[in-house]
Specification:
It catalyses: Hydrolysis of (1->3)-beta-D-glucosidic linkages in (1->3)-beta-D-glucans. Belongs to the glycosyl hydrolase 17 family. One of its GO terms (biological process) is defense response. With 487 residues, the protein is α/β, with parallel strands linked by helices. 33% of the residues lie in helices and 13% in strands. A 9-stranded parallel sheet has the order 5-4-3-2-1-13-12-9-6. Helix 1 packs antiparallel against helix 12 and helix 10 packs across helix 11. The termini are close together.
């Protein structure tokens, strides 16, 4: 009897330990050349096990990371999902010394390549390091880092894993208004030719990030329909080729730049492409759905672009919203996810590009914090510091949904204050001290969300879970001992 009870308790323990894990589910994605970018710059990131379960449930077979975090890679082990690990820009100078590149490969690649381990396919050396706005900060360190990482991979017996540098589309430009005028940007052309030559030699692809949304965002005169794939905009003709969307035109500008410099057959991978859903008047779920439906339908056709026919390898950007990303480029930066911060889909999407009404499978087993919100206390006596307190709350959290044209732009004054207070409260894991503001705020169990404007409840972070699990185990162990003694 005692043995039976212990076995039952062990089963209960296993169930407790597996809470929050995703399951394989039924794959709904047959387009194996579509991947996703998985970033984790969030106040309370969704635990890797939940995210991996979500990837599997949606049949996503490729993922691009922005680092080589061990907990993320451990969660991907045994899944068969192809992975691109990454070296951040601030580590490029360190990789200029081969011994450090060798050590990085050992710790972040070799370590995970055991039988049943992680299916690492690419190493991304930096992330858009030659972006014009970086003012040459990484110009001298990018190529040496790439060369050393490739050498380290080859020495470790991982020559089949290809290293490349994800680059922003601003590394090339057109001398005219058509793709055939394409060539590499003057100030980085020599370096680009060295990089491209090295990629060609090593059989690695050119990875480029293309954002039609930014064309619309940065230029108020940009023809809106040209950012989408419906063919409703005015088309342009170039050397007998017709272009009716900016993606094809941008991609083929790169093709021309490579062709002019003797690398016309170099493989191209689109490292990032997507549409944000908040933080700007053109960043919303309506436009995002329209963009993705057109893009996915195009990818499913396997027609490629006018200059490069055939199947395209593409990584959607991004998987999840990230509420601590820098908003220097714009408030929309925190809203690129096709899923919300908690892994729930924002709009219908069929990764096969066939059914516009199909819905993605959301993350399972997500643990939320308590259903409580921090809101403005209308009865507070001293309201002189409201403005300063709102500024502080927003500076320490995320108020990008309050901007012009954003999802919470229509809140009244009290609603704006409450939104700011609640975001600060949630960022600080619903600490009572985080909902004070000198008496201007109060905690409520009434959902503060308003039509079209979500007042989010944060998820339980991985760190917070680690403090809970030992307590659960201690209680379970104590309960087991008591039962054994009684029996």
């Amino acid at each position: 009897m005692a043995r039976a009870i212990v076995q039952w308790l062990w089963t209960l323990f296993m169930v407790m330990g597996l809470v929050g894990m995703g399951n394989c589910g039924n794959s709904n994605n047959n387009n194996n050349d579509i991947g996703v970018n998985w970033g984790n710059m969030a106040s309370q990131p969704l635990p890797p096990t939940n995210v991996v379960g979500m990837l599997k449930d949606n049949g996503i077979q490729k993922v691009k990371l922005f680092d080589a975090d061990s907990s993320t890679l451990n969660a991907l082990a045994g899944t068969g999902i192809e992975v691109m690990v990454a070296i951040p820009n601030d580590m490029l100078s360190r990789m200029n010394k081969f011994k450090y590149a060798k050590d990085w490969v050992k710790k972040n690649v070799t370590k995970h390549l055991y039988n049943g381990g992680v299916n690492i396919r690419y190493v991304a050396v930096g992330n858009e390091p030659l972006l014009a706005s970086y003012n040459d900060s990484f110009k001298q360190t990018t190529l040496p880092a790439l060369e050393n990482i490739v050498k380290a991979l080859e020495e470790a017996g991982h020559g089949d894993i290809k290293a490349s540098v994800p680059l922003n589309a601003d590394v090339y430009e057109s001398s005219s208004t058509v793709p055939s005028g394409g060539d590499f940007r003057g100030d980085v052309k020599d370096l680009m030719l060295d990089i491209v030559g090295f990629l060609k030699e090593k059989g690695a692809p050119f990875i480029v990030n293309i954002y039609p949304f930014l064309s619309l965002y940065q230029n108020p005169n940009f023809p809106e329909e040209f950012a989408f794939f419906d063919g409703n905009g005015k088309s342009i003709n170039d050397n007998s080729h017709t272009y009716n969307n900016v993606f094809d035109a941008n991609f083929d500008t790169l093709v021309w730049a490579l062709k002019k410099n003797g690398y016309g057959d170099l493989k191209i991978v689109v490292g990032e492409i997507g549409w944000p859903t908040d933080g700007h008047i053109k960043a919303n779920t309506k436009y995002a759905k329209k963009f993705y439906n057109g893009l996915l339908k195009k990818l499913a056709s396997n027609k490629g672009t006018p200059m490069r026919s055939g199947q395209l390898e593409v990584f959607l950007f991004g998987l999840l919203d990230e509420n601590t990303k820098s908003i220097d480029p714009g408030d929309f930066e925190r809203h690129w996810g096709i899923f919300r911060y908690d892994g729930q889909p924002k709009f219908s999407m069929d990764l096969n590009g066939k059914d516009n009404s199909k819905t993605l499978v959301g993350a399972k087993g997500v643990q939320y914090m308590e259903s409580k919100w921090c809101v403005f206390n209308k009865d507070a006596k001293n309201q002189d510091n409201i403005s300063a307190s709102v500024d502080y709350a927003c500076s320490m959290s995320d108020c990008t949904s309050l901007g012009y044209g954003s999802s919470c732009n229509d809140l009244d004054v009290n609603g704006n204050i409450s939104y700011a207070y609640n975001m600060y409260f949630q960022f600080n894991e619903q600490s009572v001290e985080a909902c004070d503001f000198d008496g201007l705020a109060t905690i409520t169990s009434n959902n503060a969300s308003q039509p079209g404007c979500l007042f989010p409840i944060e998820i339980v972070s991985a760190a917070f879970r680690l403090t809970i699990v030992p307590i659960q185990l201690l209680l379970l162990f104590s309960f087991t001992l008591v039962l054994l003694v009684l029996l």
